[in-house]
Design goal:
169 residues; alpha+beta
Length: 169
């Protein structure tokens, strides 16, 4: 699949079958995350690879998306390391670039994906820090879900010319 086709065809998938993702594909997805650009090349991110569902089942009361996580073969928690930057400036952007690269890599490899955001300082945020023993300054940014799609979605045209503004010189 070429890049523009991959971008066009990626969808947020909320139903996955139980087929595990091959280790070499997990590595390719992670490597795609590491290829993302970052401000000042500080690369303030780390990834926690999760294949066990028990924790996500416990978290459903904090975040309904955890019900999907508990049924997904692979979740990757993106953690921003605020100790790497003198301020939190660009931390979200840097981690988001990683997330997008990973979602697109998964699609290119034939997997579905879902991006689940983490609201800062919520109970879910605090539970992630506690469960994964994140050190001071390590902030949970997003959980990405990956697996073989168990639902079929069709791409709709999202381009909106009304939201594009050209500066005329």
């Amino acid at each position: 699949m070429d890049t523009l086709e991959t971008i066009k065809n990626r969808q947020s998938i909320r139903k996955f079958d139980s087929t595990p993702i091959k280790k070499e594909d997990v590595d390719k997805i992670l490597k795609a995350g590491f290829e993302a650009p970052s401000a000042m090349n500080r690369r303030p991110y780390e990834f926690v690879v999760c294949t066990k569902s028990e924790f996500w089942k416990e978290m459903i009361t904090f975040k309904s998306t955890c019900a999907i996580m508990a049924e997904t073969p692979l979740c990757i928690l993106i953690v921003g390391n605020s100790n790497v930057n003198p301020t939190d400036e660009f931390l979200i952007e840097d981690c988001s670039a990683c997330a997008e690269n990973m979602l697109l890599a998964a699609k290119d490899l034939g997997y579905g994906s879902l991006w689940a955001g983490v609201k800062w300082h919520s109970e879910f945020y605090d539970a992630l820090i506690k469960h994964f023993h994140l050190p001071d300054g390590y902030l949970p940014i997003a959980v990405l879900l990956f697996g073989t799609e168990a639902e079929k979605k069709y791409q709709v045209e999202r381009f909106d010319a009304k939201k594009v503004h050209y500066e005329v010189f």
